[in-house]
Amino acid sequence: MAPACNTLFFFLFFTFPLSIFSAASIHFHHPLDPLTLQELDQVRTIITASHHNLTFHYVGLDEPDKSIVVSWLAHRTTAKTPPRRALVIARLNHQTHQFIVDLSTHSIVSDEIYSGSGFPMLTFEEQTAANSLALTHAPFRASVGRRGLKMEEIVGLSYTVGWYGEEGTSRRIVKVMFCYLDGTVNLYMRPIEGITVTVDLDEMKVIAYHDRLMVPVPKADGTDFRESKQKPPFGPRLKGITVVQPDGPSFTIHGHQISWANWDFHLAFDMRAGPIISVASIYDVEKKEQRRVLYRGYISELFVPYMDLTEEWYFRTFFDAGEYGFGLCAMPLQPLTDCPENAVFMDGYVTGQNGTPVNMTNVFCIFERYAGDIMWRHTEAEIPGKLITESRPEVSLVVRMVSAVGNYDYIIDWEFLQSGSIKLSVGLSGVLEVRGTTYTHVDQIHEEVYGTLLADNTLGAYHDHFLTYHLDLDVDGDTNSFVKSNLRKTLVSGNRSPRRSYWTVVSETAKRESDAKIQLGLKPAELLVVNPNKRTKVGNYVGYRLIPGSVVGPLLTDDDYSQRRGAFTRYNVWVTPYNKSEKWVGGLYTDQSRGDDTLAQWSLRDREIENKDIVMWYTMGFHHVPYQEDFPLMPTISGGFELRPSNFFDSNPVLKVKPPRQVKWPSCPTSISDLP
Ligand SMILES: *[C@@H]1O[C@H](CO)[C@@H](O)[C@H](O)[C@H]1NC(C)=O
Ligand SMILES: *[C@@H]1O[C@H](CO)[C@@H](O)[C@H](O)[C@H]1NC(C)=O
Ligand SMILES: *[C@@H]1O[C@H](CO)[C@@H](O)[C@H](O)[C@H]1NC(C)=O
Ligand SMILES: [Cu+2]
């Protein structure tokens, strides 16, 4: 949820030698490959040749049209890669520019000035500059003196300010808030309340200063999370544990294309979205063909509104992807702890504010998961004189990224199963955003405090996390329909049966967008994306279904300003016709947006979605009421959902999956019967 995910940034700075990018060969690319370091540097060279003093806020692949990608895939050995293009969003003279750069012709194809509401993602460098500026602001230093705090122990953090109904043009601003170290590295547990420094980012000037109240800074004691800082008593220690693959992994990676078991997909890194999974297809052994499942899937936005109305808090309604860059905040994964021993790692590249590419090492890990679970089993005990047991271990493939957006660490997993399922999960760890208070015991509190008292002087604020996924399923082809199969309670009349009631399935195919806006709740329904032009042998439409996780929806009113900006959370499921430019549910320019470019607005057109290329948007989330166990750092809490084949295969696709080869442990018995 919050600001300044830039701790590691400066260690990772990368300057590309000039000689390499001119020799860059571009014809080996998959059309959806992210821009390479060479290409990113080329983008910088092309743009800065004609534009000076601009700041780069986003650089990424301007993906080719879907039809071009699909036809490239069909002839991939012979087809020429479509021209490589970059989308660049930059600020220049207080204006937002949107450039398209063609890397094959080394030219700027278009340069549009955006004049609507909202601003691009913040850069690390401007946040750092704003924080430093705030720390040197004389009235701030006076406030610090009054509080008896040490200047050198203070850390500034840039918070996006949202929009609360202001009219007219707005300035691009952040509010810098402060935390205190002095005996801990867990600075978020030591907020310095009451002070707000408002900084104009384009001018890089302080434009407002408030010191409203003095509240004790929570103590450092007990906040540090590092092993070296922990004092006894300690918990029990487990024996060693790992996953061993003596023959290596069962997946292969060619560039960004990953193949494992029956799956084949493309993995790209984007500085806004983080991981993007594309052109996922599964090999059907019975049909002997590669079948399309998902054209593109990624997290379009993470909306994190806080519920505290105090002056230093009411505006904290963050859009982590659109404001801070979910990819930009990705952190190098730690071998052996973030990912198991059998993981392989992949780098990603982002662009710094001056256009310089940055190598983010180990941004993804890819590994096979074996956690002792069962893929399928059955014991047949009903045949007289026989006991037949058959079972298979579950082994899956996981792609992981961790993004540390300020205090929060989001663990993003895409898990592919041999059964054809894709499980998407999000783990939340890291530290809470807390408010300093005078209270040290709940019995002292007789006012609304918008949170839980977690420790002395420490209130954990109520908030939500909403993650909206873009899921462009292309089940066996582009043209799909969205089907809602309601499980309907039916009463039995007359003497038809001794039963009084039963339930049955009543399916409706959504014709238009308005038919597919779904607030999940107690009414059971199966939600399917089917191909109405393809049927199984017995005649069912081939499909995939969404199996939602725990259901969360907004508790704010629709006319609340932050909820207008986050209106895409109003429904858990939306379906829209595919449109290449409808990518970011909170709008392309999310910082200080006014809700005029959200999924909720797009879908007001109520377009036709039956037997069309459609995109499903799914919002999962968490209402977060903090508990004391979340202090000083949260054990991971997870949520997720599943995309599961549903009449996609003619029968169980993993019946004939053989168990993995047995691993012989050195000097260990391979089975119980080998034991002496
Ligand atoms: C770029 O910024 C620098 C420093 O602010 C200034 O000296 C220079 O004139 C600017 N160049 C242009 C082309 O605006
Ligand atoms: C990025 O950094 C990693 C680790 O230092 C290195 O192995 C990799 O080659 C770098 N990537 C490029 C393209 O230079
Ligand atoms: C695609 O979406 C954008 C933004 O909503 C809209 O302006 C444009 O008209 C749409 N294109 C088509 C072909 O519907
Ligand atoms: Cu939370």
TrEMBL record:
Entry EC number(s): 1.4.3.-
Cofactor(s) recorded in Swiss-Prot or TrEMBL: Cu cation
Residues in Copper amine oxidase N3-terminal domain copies: 120-217
Domain Copper amine oxidase catalytic, residue spans: 242-655
Signal sequence, renumbered to the chain: 1-23
Active site: D320 (proton acceptor), Y408 (schiff-base intermediate with substrate)
The protein's enzyme class: oxidoreductase
Modified sites of kind 2',4',5'-topaquinone: Y408
Modifications after synthesis and translation: Topaquinone (TPQ) is generated by copper-dependent autoxidation of a specific tyrosyl residue.
Manner of cofactor binding, per the entry note: Contains 1 topaquinone per subunit.
Copper amine oxidase N2-terminal domain residues: 30-112
GO molecular function, one term: quinone binding
InterPro entries attached to this UniProt entry: Cu_Am_Ox_Cu-bd (IPR049947), Cu_amine_oxidase (IPR000269), Cu_amine_oxidase_C (IPR015798), Cu_amine_oxidase_C_sf (IPR036460), Cu_amine_oxidase_N-reg (IPR016182), Cu_amine_oxidase_N2 (IPR015800), Cu_amine_oxidase_N3 (IPR015802)
Swiss-Prot/TrEMBL keywords: Copper, Disulfide bond, Metal-binding, Oxidoreductase, Signal, TPQ
Gene3D superfamilies named in the record: 3.10.450.40, Copper amine oxidase, catalytic domain
A Pfam family hit: Cu_amine_oxidN3
GO biological process, one term: response to jasmonic acid
Subunit structure comment from the entry: Homodimer.
Family per similarity comment: Belongs to the copper/topaquinone oxidase family.
Cited PANTHER family: AMINE OXIDASE (PTHR10638:SF71), COPPER AMINE OXIDASE (PTHR10638)
Protein's name in the database: Amine oxidase
